[in-house]
Amino acid sequence: MPCVHESNKKDWMKTQNGIIKLHPYCNKCGSVGNISSDRGKKIGYFLIALSRLRKILKDRGYKVSEAQIRLIAKELSSIEDFDDTWWITFSRQKEIFISVVRKYIRVSTDLLESVLNSEWR
Q: What is the chain's pLDDT, residue by residue, as a tens digit (121 residues)?
């Protein structure tokens, strides 16, 4: 069962750009909270992006089966802490999403990134 993060303490740690800032950390599991603007998203965001991708590919004449969609969704949900927005960054989630989708659907990384960045509507 995933941790319901509770934090009332902070510790000094480096950020991605090397600046030292106070970061909250979970009293139960010890995970350090992400304080950057690169906040993670819930899995629903990625399932909607997958639906958009399916529509785009359908419009281009490529069929994405229900089995492919289910396999991708199952693998994303089985990745430990993929849905834990407390500490995972959106950048890391994008990397994971792109690698999983490309396992099951032959599609370019650029198209996947554009779908994730909501350029296609």
A: 566 666 666 666 666 667 776 666 676 666 666 666 677 888 999 999 999 999 999 999 999 999 999 999 999 999 988 887 767 888 899 999 999 999 999 999 999 999 998 754 4
Which residue, 77, 108, 82, 78, is CA-closest to 94?
Answer: 82
- What is the Cα–Cα distance from 25 to 22, expressed in whole angstroms? 10
| Amino acid occupying residue 26 | C
User: Hey, where are the domains in the chain?
Assistant: 1-36, 43-116
Q: Is the pTM of this model over 0.85?
A: no
Are 40 and 89 contacting, i.e. CB atoms less than 8 angstroms apart?
yes
